[in-house]
């Protein structure tokens, strides 16, 4: 019984220890979860810090590269500045040389231009003298031609006047002849009409005389039209001659 009691006491102690161990295990599990969560957060923070550090390293590297590049660019700019200054000095020297050459060329051009002007002046004076002599010769020739044309125009006017008088006389003669013919025809027609009325003949002779009378009138009209046309042509030629005479006088003036 003592052993049993002792065993129960030991079992009770073991249960108490187990309970304590269970409590400690639960505490340990809570701590494990807490520390696991904390570890996870720390790992994430570590990863973000690593990313930040990498980006900072990259930025620093870029800055270093930019500094090196900037240093190289400064060297290049200094070299280019030196080259530009030397080129500007060379251009300035070239400009001075060109200015001196332009001045010398301008003086030479002035001398050549003065020579050309003098030569052109002499040539213009010679050409003017030649032109004046040619104009005088042409004026004398034109004067002779105008005098000849005036004589021809006067002769043409005389011929036109004579032709006009001849046409007028011919026209009067034709009119007189036509009047006589017309009177004879009319008298003949009246006699035939009287004879017809006396003998009571048919109307055929009267129509014949009418046709003859009409024929004579047509011939007269044709002759008069031809004479009028000829007179108009003569007047037109006379106007042309007067216009040419006026133009010749204007040219002469």
Write the layout of secondary structure elements.
Layout: H1 2-199, H2 204-252
Helix pairs in contact: 1-2
Q: What would you note in describing this structure?
A:
By secondary structure, the protein is mostly helical. The chain has a domain at 144-252. It is built from 2 helices and no strands. It has helices spanning 2-199, 204-252. Helix 1 (2-199) crosses helix 2 (204-252). The termini are far apart. Mean pLDDT is 78; it is low at 200-204 and 248-253.
**Number of alpha- plus pi-helical segments:** 2
Structural class, by secondary structure, is mainly alpha
How far apart the termini lie comes to 183 Å
The count of β-strands is 0
Order of helices and strands: HH
Q: Globular, elongated, flat, extended or rod-shaped: what is the shape?
A: elongated
Which runs of at least 5 residues are low in confidence (pLDDT < 50)? Answer: 200-204, 248-253
Provide the helix percentage: over 70%
Rg computed from alpha carbons, rounded to a whole number of angstroms: 72 Å
Main sheet: strands, sense, barrel: none
Strand content: under 5%
Mean pLDDT: 78
């Amino acid at each position: 019984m003592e052993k049993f009691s002792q065993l129960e006491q030991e079992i009770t102690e073991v249960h108490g220890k187990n309970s304590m161990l269970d409590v400690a295990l639960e505490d340990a599990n809570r701590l494990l979860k807490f520390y696991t969560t904390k570890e996870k957060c720390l790992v994430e923070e570590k990863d973000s810090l690593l990313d930040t550090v990498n980006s900072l390293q990259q930025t620093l590297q870029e800055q270093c590269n930019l500094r090196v590049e900037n240093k190289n660019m400064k060297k290049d700019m200094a070299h280019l500045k030196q080259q530009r200054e030397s080129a500007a000095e060379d251009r300035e020297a070239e400009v001075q040389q060109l200015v001196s050459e332009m001045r010398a060329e301008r003086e030479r051009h002035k001398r050549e231009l003065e020579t050309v002007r003098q030569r052109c002046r002499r040539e213009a004076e010679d050409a003017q003298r030649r032109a004046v002599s040619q104009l005088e010769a042409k004026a004398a020739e034109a004067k002779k031609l105008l005098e000849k044309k005036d004589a021809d125009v006067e002769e043409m006017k005389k011929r036109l006047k004579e032709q006009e008088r001849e046409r007028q006389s011919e026209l009067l003669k034709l009119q007189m002849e036509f009047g006589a013919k017309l009177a004879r025809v009319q008298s003949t027609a009246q006699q035939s009409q009287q004879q017809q009325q006396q003998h009571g003949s048919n109307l055929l002779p009267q129509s014949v005389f009418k046709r003859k009378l009409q024929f004579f009138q047509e011939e007269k009209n044709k002759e008069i039209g031809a004479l009028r046309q000829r007179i108009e042509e003569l007047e037109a030629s006379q106007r042309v001659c007067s216009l040419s005479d006026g133009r010749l006088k204007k040219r002469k003036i």
